[in-house]
């Protein structure tokens, strides 16, 4: 069935290529703007993602300044922000808007769309041996929906009352009552519109990824020969397709509550002394709907990063990824389990405590596949021959962050401990390490690693090293002290810690964190310069700069439409034959048949191929005979 | 040839960085007088900023120069037919250095900042939470340190070299089984302990024979907490959100007789070693009652009353002695984003002896203030009526 589909498509594209030479001329618009080529769409996602990341990072620096110097005025802030920073001091409501938009952009626009959008689009056709995605048009639509969503999200800075301010989780009733805070007025409406478009974009992307993976693999590329990147993107897309619509449901009901007087989430409410007519709704319902997406969402963020790290670490350790099957099964385990753990965000919301106990059990189970992945990464490094490319450094950084941040998840997943830690800086530290820093490091590892594939040029390694070390150290300096703040009961989303006596002792730590954050932010200049400079002036890349086995490196450097000039290569082996004993080089591309590598074949290679195994055994016999003759 | 090209590239890059940032500064300078309202303030607005921008440019410049020096050094090595800088060795060594310095940093953090955390638990269940915490900490810190050591030492030991070849090891089922089952067992233990700890804290029906808990109502609204104590009858009167007004802040329904002797307080005062039940409600948006000293947190949700039962064990006075801080107070503060003044929504909690508590209670004003009585003329009218009802009931008996 699937081979048939590949065949059909293959023919179709060849016809297209044929036409192409004669009378289809690409214009600037069709090539760079409304492009349907998966490589161009990937680049569009990447650059939009980078721009959004920079914006969200600047927002975080603004609110970090407030936390470090709650009593100081910075006149230039008033110049930049106008009414949002009267007298050079951030407005308390605008502070919450900054926090909200920082979170929203980072989680959705950078680490979901920027990460999955870039690398799924780039690598699924490349690593599977397809000419393009299943539906290039839908792919284009997916990007432009995302772009529109980004524009609307940013536009909310220009409405009178400022952007949404209820936190990125926008819990009603705060988000449902425009009177409750300025950030729940027009800004929230824009937030909701933006998110609906965003989800539509993700669904179109996700459906495309899944159908491409299932139907358009090249000859010989069965599921168990797919690189771990593809497994990760595939499972991430499934997660997204199943989880994102629930967010839309939640958001639409919230729109009803806000604009049409329904009471889905509202009950017995008195705002600023005024009794409202809402009755019978439940604010907890929204939390259920939100976290039914929200928890899978954190795995949507981290799984592609895991896939990228696995691939980059294997290539640069010159060693097969340890426990390929275990890696795939743990991804599947995470995918399934991530749907039944959402309640751990709600232990102290008034949800039935017994239910809390059940969610605690499922939550701690999900730590097992995560631990397996970590151990397998460590085993991949063991006795490797590690080449420290910037991509490799970021992949190692990911593992370090994933351990540090993952371990604190065991505290937060424990309902009893969560009573004291819920909504404190301990949570902030936890998720910024495990899904923030780890995922962004996965994304950066991918950018450094596949930059030659995207732009045909190399990024500068030394600047990459500088970027890595400053960011890696900076991120730890920012987030490590936050654990202690949280354990002392410092709440998140506080405009200032000056009002409550017991929180004042953390002011100096806050100043330190802010300066560490500024340092890490400035380190990104090294990356931005390196990235944009190298697009135009970087060293020209060779076809396979990392000596990698996977299919994308068999395409020409020029990145032509349809990816391969001739026939799509056939795949004969798994993607991780690095440093195989008996082989001439330390890598054997997936396109090399076993018949050409007789000296390095192992019985294990023929597990599901009995004819191959008999041939291999016969070859072994002849070898023995020859040796005896000698 | 290549040498020249490299230098050109590098110089070009440095130059463009300078140009870019330079023009940014100029742009900022150009806009500042126009944007600022007070024209005479305009220059001072940007002096501080431009100082830092300049500082950053200097740093960029130094980084560029160091990059250049490294490049020249690398090229001279190559000209002498030696191998260039072995970046794998440099990075591998940095990995090891990071591990060592990082571990020192972790130790420093644990000892300095670690001593500022988890103020002594002042409630019965707080002690069990803390022991659960330290058990989990003990297990995870071992995992944390050992895996980080493995990660960075592997990175150092197996740094790349042309002489070696990596060891082809695609999988090993035995060791994989071990490191799947081992965390599973550890987590099972943690789950079981955690589950029972959680149930013992939340599954809190008053046991038979045990004296009933003291009920205290706490109501959150933007941006304050209203506190209501039961009167002599020990029962809190009913509430109805439709009755909320400027004087009847939590909407007490005075048709319920239990409400007539309810007390309003502005501090939460608790008798030590008595079971307390906080009845938690919110009026407008979600708030959260958070009292870290008592390891207590529960959201206040509009339309969904919640509660938390606990027993304070250390009085404020005793805590002041222990900490040697004469002005120490327990605090209750909001821990769920609720609007602009979220950061300033708190109450003092004071734990006192039983005698002090009774004394304090006798000095509290009734919730049904004179003003409220006047406002609700119907209350005066109702009161005798209700007495009448009672009399009739009594007669019936």
Automatic annotation (TrEMBL), chain B:
Q: Which SUPFAM superfamilies does the record associate with it?
A: Cupredoxins, Cytochrome c oxidase subunit II-like, transmembrane region
Example of a GO MF term: copper ion binding
Which reactions appear under catalytic activity for this entry?
A: 4 Fe(II)-[cytochrome c] + O2 + 8 H(+)(in) = 4 Fe(III)-[cytochrome c] + 2 H2O + 4 H(+)(out)
User: What cofactor does its activity depend on?
Assistant: Cu cation
Report TM segments. 51-70, 90-110, 133-158, 178-198
Which Gene Ontology BP annotations are present?
ATP synthesis coupled electron transport
Outline the extent of the Cytochrome oxidase subunit II copper A binding domain.
211-363
Record-listed E.C. numbers: 7.1.1.9
Specify whether Translocase is a keyword of the entry.
yes
Signal peptide per UniProt: 1-27
Q: Which coarse location class applies to the principal site listed for this UniProt protein?
A: membrane
Q: Where in the numbering of this chain does the Cytochrome oxidase subunit II transmembrane region profile domain appear?
A: 110-205
The free-text note explaining how the cofactor binds reads: Binds a copper A center.
Family label: Belongs to the cytochrome c oxidase subunit 2 family.
Role this protein plays: Subunits I and II form the functional core of the enzyme complex. Electrons originating in cytochrome c are transferred via heme a and Cu(A) to the binuclear center formed by heme a3 and Cu(B).
Q: What is the protein's given name?
A: Cytochrome c oxidase subunit 2
Q: Which organism is it from?
A: Mucilaginibacter agri
